[in-house]
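During data preparation, a discrete fold description was generated, and the record follows.
___
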Amino acid sequence: MHKRIFGIENEYGVTCTFHGQRRLSPDEVARYLFRRVVSWGRSSNVFLRNGARLYLDVG
């Protein structure tokens, strides 16, 4: 039997309104939440020190 790596995947969805003003687009929210990840890893798809994969799924 082949050795396999198993893990858990979490997915989150977000939306924003403020006193009836315009909502933020999903792109705006994603860029804000991942700004430090992109500045550190130069991508929104990175591997962390503990081996975890952190990425932005836009599809």
In short: The mean pLDDT is 85. The two ends are 34 Å apart (CA to CA). Residues 8 and 41 are 22 Å apart (CA to CA). The helical segments are 26-33, 35-41.
